[in-house]
Amino acid sequence: MTLNGLIIEGVAGAGKSNILEALLKRPGFVRWLGGGLVLREEQTFPDNLMAQLREPVLTDIQHCAPLRRATQKLARSWRDDQKLKYVLERFHPSYYALMPDWRLYRNVDSALAAMNCLLVLLHFPDKEIEKRTLDRPERAHSDWKEEMLSYFGSREKALQALVESQARRFECLSLSRIPRLCIDTSDMNWDAAAEKIEEALA
């Protein structure tokens, strides 16, 4: 099967953005992508989703509206050109980590499977969650950690939620129809991870 799409998934700190940048510097990947689409995390996963879930004015179906819209837009583009290549940084596994009801994502997953997508799940041992995710140096000057602690009520609960978030992504894989590749990023070797992805797409 020729793979046309790539989803790069993983809990915060797993290396999604770093690996995407490494891929975009690799000539082989650039040739594979051609003039295709690259949808970054800010285009696929709303920053305020956790805040919305904290104050449940909307239903889970409504929370997933951006995901459905992005899938429909991508499907239209792919129908016009079935050689179109695309990359999604975060997608339905991230939603599933917060709203683990597979009925919300079944159609999205089926659509992506039909568009010949590969789902890459980046992960690392749970014992590294505190350092790699909650206390990420690159977010030291943002409100992200404070928002996490406020949302979950304590540091301990936030850490447990992050461990669960990673576990739910694996659970999502078990439900998905999409071919997958799991990469342990404990060594934070982004180039090596990018190479594995490029080989899987070849």
Molecular structure report:
It is a single chain. The protein has a five-stranded parallel beta sheet with strand order 2-3-1-4-5, sandwiched between helices. It is α/β, with parallel strands linked by helices and 202 residues long. The longest helix is centred in the C-terminal third of the chain and has 21 residues. The relative contact order is 0.22. It is globular, with a radius of gyration of 17 Å. The protein is built from twelve helices and five strands. The mean pLDDT is 92. The chain is 54% helix and 12% strand.
Brief write-up:
The protein has 202 residues and is an alpha/beta fold. The protein is built from 12 helices and 5 strands.
Strand order of the largest sheet: 2-3-1-4-5
The termini sit apart by: 10 Å
Q: What is the N-to-C order of secondary-structure elements (H for helix, E for strand)? A: EHHEHHHHEHHEHHHEH
Number of contiguous helices: 12
Largest sheet: 5 strands, parallel
| Multimeric status of the protein | single chain
Q: Supply Rg.
A: 17 Å
Question: Which range best describes the helical content: under 10%, 10-25%, 25-40%, 40-55%, 55-70% or over 70%?
Answer: 40-55%
Q: Output the structural class.
A: alpha/beta
Low-confidence stretches: none
- Mean pLDDT reading: 92
State the total count of DSSP E strands: 5
Strand content: 5-15%
Principal-axes geometry comes out as: globular
